Amino acid sequence: MDSTDLSSGRVESALRGGVTKERILDAAEHLFAEHGFAATSLRKITAAAQVNLASVNYHFRSKESLIVAVLIRKMSPINARRIELLDAAEKRAGEGPLMLEDVLDAFVGPVLRARQEGGEASNFPKLLGRVYTEPGDWVARIFPQALGEVAARFRVAFLKALPASEFVDAMWSMHFAIGSLAHYLAAPALLSFLLQEEAATLDVEVVQARLVRFMAGGMRALAAKKEAAG
Amino acid sequence: MDSTDLSSGRVESALRGGVTKERILDAAEHLFAEHGFAATSLRKITAAAQVNLASVNYHFRSKESLIVAVLIRKMSPINARRIELLDAAEKRAGEGPLMLEDVLDAFVGPVLRARQEGGEASNFPKLLGRVYTEPGDWVARIFPQALGEVAARFRVAFLKALPASEFVDAMWSMHFAIGSLAHYLAAPALLSFLLQEEAATLDVEVVQARLVRFMAGGMRALAAKKEAAG
DNA sequence: GTCTATACGATGATAGAC
DNA sequence: GTCTATCATCGTATAGAC
Asked: How far is B15 from chain A (nearest CA, A)?
């Protein structure tokens, strides 16, 4: 990590423990989480990372691509944990039925706990929630990369946990459920407004319990459509 | 509407059927819906409206205030229709129980049909969906103004339709339900990704049926928490 | 009161030297 | 691979015409 190349102008950055690209990612992640995408200029990022402004455009094509890179890097451990928990749930179920609540816990839990993974207090979950609704077509392009394996695994898991459901209905309910999660992460202001009080001091366990209960109820109701009708 | 003041320099705008303020609102609404908030500069708006750039800063304090003004204006008829439908549902229920699905239909229907109200094809629903998750504190400030009466009416309606639920639980489920709606409006890309096909050609009635069924199932499941536990 | 012309600082992006 | 220099464009502010 440390460099002995004292004749180079890159001594300071080398001593600080990372190449330029990673230093940009670190600074950007911190500032994005703190102030959001739009409010964080490339100049603030490069200043915090102590690198040149143009290096962002060299290592990443644009600010948009930088955002994507930051998100992908942060999502990876979360998605790994999701699959880990899903594996455990499926193993626990064995040959028996896969509980919908367990699948939802595996999907929701790692995201809600994401703020502790960084080791520092951050509003990254809120940032993550914005991903789904950020304007622009670039969002659609990160789905395959960001949650390709996760989507594939949970697709079949939800289908297994909702035996009465058809594929299309399960995907719709999955979409609605993700919406509930994303909205909780991204729009705490509305919740505070509805509750007519501050909702910031909430325990993660309690939130997860409520969220999973809501999701499970909704998904089961949608899956039961064909049963009730036919 | 038409002006005979041919001696004035404002003939052109008068002939085009509106004062500057409204022409800005019209152009902004169209461009915001078409390209999103960030991608629409004030210069493009004023160019489309054929007014001076500085007039935006005169009639509205800032771009942010302009966005709010556009949203409030567009939300008003939607919210009026919501209350209209809620009134009808409550009258229909009479002294009997208020059906949760009816309340949800009243809440969801007018939004899903918003694209037809403008008389032109627009992606305003998508724009509306972004409101809930847009970064920045200004969003929180529009809630009281944008859905003050609506929130108040539907708060009590949901409580009536969910007799087993406590206030806090009902508000949480309301929040989650709004999340499902907002997410559907704002993130069609994810749905297409999950379905592995284009989802653009969907009938509003079908979507509403699915959405309301999901919401109702989720809200009932969350409301039943206390019952099951106690 | 309304509207215009003009300017300011900051932003994302790029070209070309090293 | 990294830098300096420069670009067009952005939101905003103000002075002054009507």
From this structure: 35
